[in-house]
Design a protein that fits this description.
8-stranded parallel beta sheet; alpha/beta; about 260 residues
Amino acid sequence: MLVDSHCHLNFPELANNMDAVRQSMLDNGVGHALCVSVTLKDFPQVLAVAEANENMYASVGVHPDYEGEGVTTVEQLVSLANHPKVVAIGETGLDYFRLTGDLEWQRERFRTHIRAAIQTQKPLIIHTRASADDTIRIMREENAQLIGGVMHCFTESLDIALQAIELGFYISFSGIVTFKNATSLKEVAQHVPLDRMLVETDSPYLAPMPFRGKTNQPAYVKYVAEEIARLRNIPVEEVAKATTENFFRLFKQAKPALCN
């Protein structure tokens, strides 16, 4: 069994086809999925997906690209996270790729999420793009190691991966690792310890080969696992077992669905 540790099932590309999404997960051995929040405005949709499906979970947080969301407080996040289906805080982090100028508001929002995670004792889902050094620095300054979490859709260097692991974080690989030009990332996937690894789709985006450019879905996480198994020269079942155990070890509030 596999777990898609990061997807956006409330986005219309998937929300409008949930019966097919669920069946495809079943057909491809994907037993569980974590539906990740990107805005507080849309959080009720994320939670609704988790509440309607025994094998799905939710997070609460504001993605760093959403400047228009305004100020997010620790109190808001703590209150919204007080639900048995909410297993994580995020996604949060830093993104210097899409936005420019004074991004101190982004860094302050990131700090707020780390503080909320520590208060709720729910792990962090961290997004970092073109901002790795600042991301690690703020994680250290805010004592993110007290709660841990996952560096989702990882595309940074092995050095950054090892620094995150040292802080108690897992490294999650998406469909990008299947892309032919992702040479450096493939090397990272070969060296990250299997007991610190997760797999994800980030669907509906970043569909793996051979579906690149099409709508992604949780079922396709198996192609991520297969590529990691190929890179490490181990059975895909070993990757599936390890990443599933890692998921439930990290997201302690997530309980395996009985039907799986």
